[in-house]
Amino acid sequence: PVPSLQVIRPEPCCVCGSRIRFGKTAIKCCQCQLLLHTKCREQCPTLCTPRPHHHAWPREGVLADFAPSTPPLVPTLVVQCVTEVETRGLTETGLYRVPGADQLVREWKRKLLRAGGALPALGSVTDIHVVCGVLKDFLRGLKEPLGEGTAPPLTLLPGAATDIPDDAASDTALRHVVSKLPPANRDTLAFLMLHLLRVSQSPDCKMDVLNLSRVFGPTLVGHSSANPTPLAIMEDTPRQSKVVARLLSLPPSFWRGFVETEQENLVPM
Question: GO CC terms for this protein (predicted)?
Fold first, then answer.
């Protein structure tokens, strides 16, 4: 059911991104809570419908909870966000650095999690930075039962691997650590690294490896303790960025080795 309502507080339309003014009539989906102009309804072909064969994903969980049953074990949400960004975002300046509208990011993340493995198309999201925000927010929200409580998928990466002065030895240590990650974490990391390398090579994006490492360091690499103090967070930040920069320095062929099998599984349906 998609009832009409009168807007009391101006909010952005999930289709066109412009604000729905106070007192205007809007449409809100009862299932995913997406809000849109009445005139934009025809441009939003993916309003929620019951999906009896697909279960909603949990609001939070370990990466394996979202991964498919066959390799590569990359969640459909990650694949679809990356595909959308690479389809129409590689000419946008500041990918992953420029924030998308917080409310749209939250609404689309909620919509995708509710949909489970049968995701609605992201083509109706006008601002590609919102898609980037959904991907980052999904990765930040992962929960890993590693003794540290809530943690992103790369908590297992030790800083020691990046402190080895010899590049060849450091690469060997990093490859070893990556290969020991849980399969879903490893495959998703490989898929993401290949994507970020493509972003870094786009002259229009102006997001080199250093910039991307600063953005994704805190998202991908956990803290040294379960409940870090503000001082620990500040001290961890350079290490987190350094780890991601070293990961991005590994050759693409290394990352492709984890995701090139059953490549057709990475095509969003």
Answer: centralspindlin complex; cleavage furrow; midbody; nucleus; spindle midzone
Helix (H, G, I), strand (E, B) or coil at 37: strand
DSSP H or E stretch at residue 26 = strand 25-28
Tell me the CATH number for domain 63-259.
Answer: 1.10.555.10
> At a CB cut-off of 8 Å and minimum separation 6, what does 220 contact?
139, 152, 153, 154, 189, 192, 240, 243, 244
Q: Contact 131/95 with Cβ under 8 angstroms?
A: no
Q: Please give the Cα distance from 217 to 230 (Å, whole number).
A: 16
Query: Within a 13 Å sphere around the CA of 206, how many CA atoms are in the beta-carbon half?
Result: 5
Query: What pLDDT tens digit does each residue of the chain (269 aa) get?
Result: 445 555 555 667 777 767 777 667 777 776 566 777 888 877 765 545 443 344 555 556 788 888 888 888 898 899 999 999 999 999 999 999 999 999 999 999 998 888 766 677 888 899 999 999 999 999 988 876 222 333 454 554 555 556 667 778 878 888 888 888 888 888 999 999 999 999 999 999 999 999 999 999 888 887 666 677 888 788 878 888 888 899 999 999 999 999 985 444 444 44
Domain parsing of the chain, residue ranges: 4-43, 63-259
Phi-psi label, residue 256: left if phi above 0, alpha if psi -120 to 50, beta otherwise: alpha
Residues 6+ apart with CB under 8 A from 79: 191, 266, 267, 268
CA distance 266 to 256: 13
> What's the CATH number for 4-43?
3.30.60.20
